[in-house]
Structures are given as structure tokens and as C-alpha cells.
Design a protein that fits this description.
Rossmann fold; 12 helices; 45% helix; alpha/beta; seven-stranded parallel sheet; 13 strands; two-stranded parallel sheet
Length: 333
């Protein structure tokens, strides 16, 4: 097991949700952290922690090489996570950008490359406890397919060039700062915009941000993780109705309207058409509806076994901490 103290660690995506939490944690671990960021202005809080800020973009091969020089460990957390984004633009960041990152890591002799992927690589399988033996598959969904292709790039670097890689596959990440599964959710709840699909009976298995960061630190320190893909999720599955109910309790909302999947899907098509007509982006689209209809979860048994990791914060405590943060940030009265 490696001690991170005094190691130089490069983090991409450090101005984002997961990358930001990770960079702060690495500082606490005593590492010399540098962040490759597109906007140094957004990284002011990171600079205040002593993190070295390197302006640049993962689509710039030469800039990536310069940022990687001298780094012992690389965490690649930068990604275009927009399911509605232009395919070429998403591919340029998520796939070509990842190629630039692994090429630089190989050239600079990086000792460990941790790639932040996603359980989205499994597609929309409707089953519980999906483990890493299930092969990634493309489904035609831009973000999902780009993450599959990015993993192929990373594992090719391991197989063909001996780059010591770990591929982390988190599920839906919630908690302080989460744009998709905390901030947008509480805003939708407050605005009366939540409609459950099939009564919210379908399950998923989210992960609280601090649990994820604990696992990501271990990905850099446990030698047995090299060459592996690891699902990172919390304990038991959570029905979508319970997930939204937890946010509802924060603002006194006790119930939500529901629609059967076919009706919700048609409504999503209507919202997409209206979005194109008005130029205003809608939070409801077919991919969102498909997500809320998915009835699946991912096994974390392999990560627990290899990393010696246990999610320390359960769903109830995670939501308590999330509520405290939302109040502190002014999202709740």
C-alpha cells in the first residue's frame, strides 16, 4: 500500500463536483496536488488550499503532457457528462481527451492512473447486483457510449504499454455539491417539477460523495487494484420514491405525482420538442425518464474485497449531511 504524503498528484476535473472533493481530500492526505483546469478563475478556492493550478484542457495534447510531467499519480476525473451534448464535442473530451491523458502518463512514467468512469458503461440492464463480469456495451446514448470508449482507451494503455491503471465506476453520486443528484433534485422538488415514474417503485444504488472519495484514495494506494475495473456504490438499493421523499422532507413536501412509464416517455418527447422550439433547455427528457424507470443496482463486492473498503456513511446519514449542506448554502430556508 502506497502512502500519498509528498507525492505529486495530478487531478483533472478538479473544478467539478467529484474532482473538487477528491483534490481537497488529497491535500488532507499530504499530497502535492496539481489541477489541470480550463478556467483558473474557477479554481481560486483550490489555489487557496495550496493546490498548483495549471491552465489547460485535456483536448490539448501538448498541454496535457506538460501538466503530467513530474506527477507520480494521475486522477482523470474530467468529462463531458451532458447526455444532450453534441456527439463530436462529447467524444473530443471524453474519448480523445482520455487518449491524451494516457499517452502523457505513459510518456512521463506515471506510477498509477486512476480513470473515473461510470456504471453507465453497463447500459440499461434491468437486473440487480450487476458486477464487473458484465461487459460494457454501447447503447446509442452519447455519454454512456463515450464512457465505454474511454475505458477501452485506458485498458489498451494497460494491456499494450503496461500503464498501471485502475478504472473506477461510480453509480449515481449524491451529497454536498452534486449538481445532478442533489442541487437539481432539491430545486425540482421546491418547484413542484418532480413526477415519479411508475410511482417511484424502481430501484437504484447511489453512492454518497465521501464514500466515493474514500474508495478513490484507495484506488491509488492498493496495488491489487491495478488493471481492475471497480463498481463503487453504497450498500442496499434505494427506491426512487424514497430518494425523492428524503429531499421532500427537507421542504415539507410529502407526496409527488406519478405517471406510468409510457405516459412519462411521451411527455418527455413533448418537452424535448418544446425545448427545440423555444431554445430553453428542459430538465425532463427521454434519458431522464429511462433512468427513473431503470430497475437495477451494481455490486460493490469486488471493490470491498480488493480495496478493503466499506462505505462508511449510510443513506440516512448521507441525506442528513446533504440537508445540512443545502441549508448552509442557502438552498433551504
Amino acid at each position: 500500500m502506497t502512502d500519498l504524503a509528498n507525492l505529486t498528484i495530478l487531478v483533472t476535473g478538479a473544478t467539478g463536483f467529484i474532482g473538487g472533493h477528491l483534490a481537497r481530500r488529497l491535500v488532507q492526505e499530504g499530497a502535492r496536488v496539481r489541477a489541470l483546469v480550463r478556467s483558473p478563475r474557477k479554481a481560486a478556492a483550490l489555489a487557496d488550499l495550496g493546490i498548483e493550478i495549471i491552465p489547460g484542457d485535456i483536448t490539448d495534447r501538448d498541454g496535457v503532457r506538460r501538466a503530467t510531467r513530474g506527477a507520480s499519480i494521475v486522477y482523470h476525473a474530467a468529462a463531458w457528462a451532458d447526455e444532450q451534448g453534441d456527439r463530436d464535442a462529447v467524444w473530443a473530451v471524453n474519448v480523445t481527451g482520455t487518449q491524451h491523458m494516457v499517452d502523457a502518463a505513459i510518456a512521463e512514467g506515471v506510477a498509477r492512473f486512476i480513470h473515473l468512469s461510470s456504471c453507465a458503461v453497463y447500459g440499461s440492464r434491468q437486473q440487480m447486483d450487476i458486477d464487473e463480469s458484465a461487459p460494457p456495451r454501447m447503447t446509442g446514448r452519447v455519454y454512456h457510449d463515450s464512457k465505454v470508449a474511454a475505458e477501452e482507451v485506458v485498458f489498451a494503455a494497460y494491456r499494450d504499454h503496461g500503464l498501471p491503471v485502475v478504472v473506477a465506476r461510480p453509480s449515481q453520486v449524491y451529497g454536498p455539491g452534486s449538481p445532478q443528484f442533489t442541487i437539481r433534485v432539491i430545486e425540482a422538488v421546491k418547484g413542484g417539477k418532480v413526477i415519479l415514474v411508475d410511482g417511484g417503485k424502481h430501484f437504484f444504488k447511489p453512492i454518497y460523495i465521501d464514500n466515493l472519495i474514500d474508495a478513490l484514495v484507495l484506488c491509488a494506494t492498493v496495488d491489487e487494484a491495478v488493471g481492475e475495473a471497480l463498481n463503487l456504490t453504497d450498500g442496499g438499493p434505494v427506491p426512487w420514491k424514497d430518494f425523492f421523499a428524503a429531499y421532500g422532507r427537507m421542504v415539507g413536501v410529502t407526496s409527488f405525482p406519478s405517471a406510468p412509464y409510457p405516459a412519462a416517455y411521451v411527455y418527455a418527447i413533448f418537452k424535448e420538442i418544446m425545448s427545440k422550439v423555444t431554445g430553453k433547455r428542459s430538465s425532463i427528457n427521454r434519458e431522464v425518464v429511462k433512468t427513473f424507470r431503470s430497475h437495477n443496482s451494481f455490486s460493490n463486492a469486488k471493490a470491498r474485497r480488493i480495496l478493503g473498503w466499506e462505505p462508511a456513511i449510510d443513506f440516512e446519514e448521507g441525506m442528513r449531511r446533504t440537508e445540512a449542506w443545502l441549508r448552509e448554502q442557502g438552498y433551504l430556508a
